[in-house]
Amino acid sequence: MKPFQKSPISLLHVFTLLLTSIVICFVLLSLISSRGIDRVGQQFSQLSQTMLPSALSNAELTKNVLQQVKFMNDGLHVKNSNDLSKIQTIITELHQQSITEIRQLQQRSLHQNAELTINQIHQLKEHIHTLNMQSSRILSIQKNTLLLSSKIKENLPSLRYGLSSIGPEMNRISAFLITDNANADDASNRFVSSAMALETTFLTLMAEDNIMTAQKWYREIYNRIAALELAYDDLSLEYPDLNTYMSLSAPLEIVMDEMRQDDSIPNQRLTFLSLVKEQKELISAASETSFLATTLLSKIALAMEKSLAQRTELVDSSIDVFKKIILISSCFLIITLWIVATWTRSWMSIGLKNITHHLKQLSDHNYKHKVPEVGPAEMQIIAKNLNKVITSTTHSIVNISNNCDVLYQTSEITNSVSNDIEAGLTQQNEALLSMASIVSQLDLSISEIAKLTQESHQETYNATQAASNGVTVIGSNNSRLTQLNEALSKNVIAMETLDREVDKIQSMVGVIASLADNTNLLALNAAIEAARAGDQGRGFAVVADEVRQLAGSTSAQTRNIRETMTALLDAANEAKSSIAVSQTEMSLAIASSMDVSKTFEHISDAVTLVSDRISQVSVATEEQAQAATEVSNNIGHINRQGEEMELQLSAFVESTKEVAGIASQQKALIQNYRF
To answer: The HAMP domain covers which part of the protein (predicted)?
Structure first.
């Protein structure tokens, strides 16, 4: 039975408990402050539902009253009936708005504890209604005066023409019409005098603004008209043909027709002055009414302002109490959070220092010690995973070290085989040079035989001996070429062994890369956990970043190893291709040597039969010379191929040296790690 082990405390559990405590504190703080907020809300509700709307309505009513007075004043200066109608429409709309605002005030005074009495509302209604009636009547009078002015202006030119023409015309006519007639002369003088007085009186009436004085001049006008008619009648009795003078009768008729009408210009003038008088009285009354209305609204506004100030003080006191409660609760919450944060920081620092210390050792390639599992549960998990990484990395590096040793030994073997091959090629080249020299001698011998065939049979015997020596040399050359071909086969086998060892190293490098990727993934998960922890997880984030950098370094080393192995494999493949070409060329050289051997056999047979075929010596000698030339060319070709093979072997030797150097470098890198 396993002994009981105490479960480590999780950092997430601590933060969850801390956040839960904070939420509970805020909930309690909200419950405590909600009552104060409700009180303030009630006060603001009363202000928004009663005082503020009432104050706005009061201001709107004051604005409407002042606007009615303004538009009424504007209407007094309007000279166009259309503009006056527009002003009347605007005043009517303002009156309707005022009625609506008064109704709203009345409703608030009935349903709320508003600072507005029923008597004040009744007075306000009366003032608004009176002001509207007065404004309407003033604008109506203004409209009538505009119409009267228009009519007077329309008819005034013709009347003034008549008044200004009858007097002078009568003087002109009487000057040549009346002779030695005292009655006619008196009537003419009275007519002229009345005409001039009528014109003067009419102009005075048109210029008069006082209705009483204007009525006096009105009566004077019609007295002058009666005197004018009497003088004209008296003169007509003396001179009946007076009516035939159109220069007098026409303007006189214009004057009389105008004065006899009910809406004559003097009557219109009196009506105009009476309307102006009434308008002034109404304007004075409207000013008084607007003053009373604005005074009443000012009293209502002062009462509302006083009530608003009282309720504002109540709201301010509630807000001050609420501020004190919030301040005390916030101070308590901040102190508590500071204590908890200090304890959490000291608790986390133990695990963070432990992880940071061992990560620094890992970055220094020190894998001797394992990471103790201390601190929060997350830190312990990281320590456990780091221990797994240390174990797996140590095992992988040991395997890589062993593989580097094998690779170095294989490179040494390959280098040795390559040196043997190079020595064989050197011997082959020497043999070929010797063969070329022998072929040259053979060519000379054949030429000499061609010249001295008939001189000595002994020379044929010497030729037979030389041919036998050539066959022996060719046989020796074939033996050496066969040995060289076998050495190349051994080299191919060694290169295949090298390929297999390189494949093993690459598989081990893949394992290391996989471990580095897993380490990087663990570091990323650790960084995510640190980000979730917020400010408390910053140290944890530093640890995760160190782990990720270590994994990145390991990945970089494995990539370098993989690239080196790839280069080694490419070099081995090139060497294998070169050896295959060398084997092909070697087979061709062996075949050429066989041909040379057969040629020398033919030469021996020909020399043996030289005595029987003396007649054919010349032809045979020429054939032998051609064969010797071909052999010389083949030997030169084989010599060139041998040189090329030697160059390829040199490149292969350099490649094996590079492989050995890479293996040494990897072994030196691995020796930096301490286990």
So the answer is: 346-398
Q: What is the pLDDT of residues 275-324, one digit of tens each?
A: 989 988 998 998 898 888 888 888 877 877 777 777 777 777 777 776 77
Sign, CA torsion 248/251/254/259: negative
DSSP element (H, E) containing 20: helix 11-46
- Residues 72, 280 contacting (CB under 8 angstroms): no
Distances (CA, A) of 455 to 32, 587, 607, 612, 619: 145, 42, 14, 15, 17
Separation CA 9–CA 281 (nearest Å):
97
Among 294, 297, 296, 282, residue whose Cα is nearest residue 135: 282
Predicted confidence band at 62 (pLDDT cuts at 50, 70, 90)?
confident
Backbone torsions φ then ψ of 114, nearest 5 degrees: -80, 155
Q: Domain residues of the chain, as ranges?
A: 12-322, 377-515+563-671
- Of 122, 103, 104, 128, which Cα lies nearest the Cα of 50? 104
Contact 284, 34 (CB under 8 A): no
| C-beta of residue 407 within 8 angstroms of C-beta of residue 658 | no
- The whole-number pLDDT of residue 1 equals 38
pTM: 0.41
Using CA atoms, how far residue 146 sits from 59, 80, 88, 156, 270, in Å, is 35, 8, 15, 15, 14
Q: Is there a common fold for 12-322 and 377-515+563-671?
A: no
d(CA 218, CA 534): 103
Radius of gyration of the chain (CA): 69
d(CA 585, CA 564): 31
Contacts of 528 (CB under 8 A, 6+ apart): none
* 431 Rama class: left (phi>0) / alpha (psi -120 to 50) / beta: alpha
pLDDT tens for 646-668 read 677 677 667 667 766 776 776 66
In the block, tokens 């009568």 appear at: 170
Rounded mean pLDDT of 516-529?
73
The per-residue pLDDT for 431 is 65
pLDDT greater than 60 at residue 225? yes
Q: Please name the residue ranges forming H helices in 47-117.
A: 52-76, 81-111
Q: How far apart are the first and last CA of the chain?
A: 35
Name 674's bridge partners: 366
SS3 674: strand
Distance CA 69, CA 139 (A): 12
Residue 288 burial by Cβ neighbours in a 10 Å radius (0-12, 13-18, 19+): middle
* Confidence check: pLDDT of 191 > 80: yes
* Dmax (CA) of the chain: 211
Dist CA 639 CA 428 (whole Å): 8
For residue 203, the tally of other CB atoms under 10 A from its CB is: 13
Whether the predicted pLDDT of 372 surpasses 70: yes
SS (H, E, C) 146-201: HHHHHHHHHHHHHHHHHHHHHHHHHHHHHHHHCCCCHHHHHHHHHHHHHHHHHHHH
Nearest to 144 by CA among 36, 304, 279, 343: 279
> Could you tell me which CATH class the domain 12-322 is placed in?
mainly alpha
Residues 645, 647, 651: CA angle, nearest 5 degrees: 115
Burial of residue 247, with CB atoms counted within 10 A of its CB: 0-12 exposed, 13-18 middle, 19 or more buried = middle
Q: Which of 86-90, 250-254, 498-502, 616-620 has the highest mean pLDDT?
A: 250-254
The residues, ordered by sequence, that sit 6+ positions from 244 with a Cβ below 8 Å of its Cβ are none
Q: What is the pLDDT of residue 189?
A: 92
In terms of Cα–Cα distance, which of 215, 164, 222 is closest to 192?
A: 164
Which residue matches tokens 């998960």?
525
Please count the residues of the chain. Answer: 675
